[in-house]
Amino acid sequence: MYNRSMADQEPDNNDLRIVVESKPSEAKLRELNISGWPKWGCSPGKYQLKFEAEETCYLVKGKVKAYYQKGGSNCEQYTEFGAGDLVTIPKGLSCTWDVSVAVDKFYRFQSSS
Q1: Per-residue pLDDT at 1 exceeds 80
Q2: pLDDT in tens, 32-91
Q3: Are 43 and 101 a contacting pair, CB within 8 Å?
Q4: Ramachandran quadrant class, 100 (left: phi over 0; alpha: psi -120 to 50; beta: rest)
Q5: How far apart are CA 113 and CA 104, in angstroms?
Q6: Does domain 19-109 have CATH number 3.40.50.620?
Q7: What are the domain boundaries of the chain?
Q8: pLDDT value of position 76
Q9: Eight-class DSSP state of 36
Q10: The (S)-ureidoglycine aminohydrolase cupin domain covers which part of the protein (predicted)?
């Protein structure tokens, strides 16, 4: 198994971070209606991304190392995720996805209230 994150276990309130749930149950995936979400994919490479809304995604295939700044500092951290992971990316996060294995994912954005 690979290291999931270099992030602190308990980030402060100003710290945006990616949350990874490894291998969620089939029941949870059905409850979320993952198969009804839009699909997106990309080939290996590096991608600069800014999330204007919170995104939840389920990776069907792929492997990603997402690099981002730790809240308010110049300290870069990363979170690694791949096939079978349910990932939540917070609104406002800018990061670089280093995709080592082509990604195929289902995703949804949370609407602002």
Answers
A1: no
A2: 999 999 999 999 999 999 999 999 999 999 999 999 987 666 678 999 999 999 999 999
A3: no
A4: alpha
A5: 29
A6: no
A7: 19-109
A8: 83
A9: G
A10: 33-107
